[in-house]
Amino acid sequence: MRKKNSLMKFIMMVLMIVVIGGGGFLYLSPQFEQKSPSIDFQTNGYWNLKDKLNINLSDASGIKYYKITFIDGAKEIVLDEKILIGSDKNLDLDITPPKLDMFYKGVSVKIKIDITDNSKWNFLNGNSISQTFDMKIDNKKPIANVINNSRYIKRGGSAVVVVKVQDENLKKAYIMFNEKIKFELREFYKENYFVALLAWDVHVEEFKKFNLIAIDKAGNKTITKIPLYIQGLKTKNDIIEISENFIESVSSSVLEQSGVDIPIELPKRFIEQNRVLREKNVNFLRELSLKHMDRSKIDDFKIIPFKRLRGSRTAAGFAEKRSYLFHGEKIDEAWHLGMDWASVKKATIKTSNSGKVIYNEYLGIYGNTIIIDHKMGLASLYAHVSSSNVELGDEVKAKKKIANTGSTGAVMGDHLHFGILVQGIEVNPLEWMDKNWIKSRITKILDNAKKTIILDK
Length: 457
Known about the structure:
Elements: H1 2-28, E1 38-41, E2 46-47, E3 53-58, E4 63-72, E5 75-83, E6 90-95, E7 108-117, E8 128-137, E9 143-149, E10 152-154, E11 158-166, E12 170-177, E13 181-183, E14 186-187, E15 193-199, E16 210-216, E17 221-225, E18 229-231, E19 236-241, H2 244-257, H3 266-292, E20 313-316, E21 320-326, E22 329-336, E23 339-342, E24 348-350, E25 355-362, E26 368-373, E27 378-383, E28 387-388, E29 395-396, E30 401-404, E31 416-422, E32 425-427, H4 429-432, H5 435-455
Parallel strand pairs: 2-8, 10-18, 19-21
Antiparallel strand pairs: 1-3, 3-6, 4-5, 4-7, 7-8, 9-11, 11-15, 12-13, 12-16, 14-15, 16-17, 20-23, 21-22, 23-31, 24-30, 25-26, 25-29, 26-27, 27-31, 28-30, 31-32
Helix pairs in contact: 2-3
């Protein structure tokens, strides 16, 4: 009897071990994983019924089956359904919209996603998940019209445009130049109207087009061309001989103050300062101006012509193409993108227009630099200064002294480099120093646009 009881206990213990071991195997085995599949549907809840839906399905044990269903009330349309033979663990699906009647007027629909994995869990049926996403149908393109704009733009120059952009689900609107350079729009005068100053970067030889682009949350896009006549730019070619002394003193100092490694060879040292650092500085100007430019609504834009440094002579102009020689051989070239005015040493610098100081620091080849934002994406730049009378964030008044000229940065002597920036792109200052140009190309355009807007109901 004792032997029989011992045998029964042994058998029960073995069975318990088998059951526990089998349960542990089922619980821990990858073939019996219990985690539900994942659905990643990147949607903001809007759909234009034209673009494909991008859906990602994933599961550690592989995907066995999925089904994508379009639901509009009682109507259900299967957009995609598939039983998979392999063990795909990650699927990127591009779901084609349903073919609907041309008079379809649906406003709100649902997208249902069902998915089952290859796990042996759930009595070999696998793990399943079903998710439903609400979608708002919007297949109407935004309104994007040009109200008024400057008639001409010159290479290296500026223009202005006023536009109307309207859509109840508007996501973004902007101006694109040559499909590469983006210009922000500012609210103008009344709701749904916007304004932007434009610039044709002097580095860009070929003019293709300025386009107004408006995109809504459903992905509907409207592209409207801005009609502009183009004008050429007279450029001047200069040859500048660079001495060993300039490189060893000026170039080396600029690189050191900019935290850049200084090449041993003199030609490479100059190129590092004149080409590499210059490009970084120009890109920084663009980024800084875009980051800190005033984005408030524009009701009126008062700007007077900028004035040259008092009592100065012009040492260099805008769009001078400089070739740099070292011991008679060309080693580099660059555009000069401002006006150089020379007067007495440490001459007084005054602003012509009021604005906000958005930069007041050392900037590589520009040396000690002050940048003042004048709203609507327009800013003025004062480089190589020796001392500053303003602080970052100051609101300065017109005709206020802001600094004294100097020889900081990559320069040979005391002078002021004066620049005009349109959304961070240096443009021809001579335009913004011309009263007639400002009136005919900028302020008159804005005034006429207002008249059109008042009549637009």
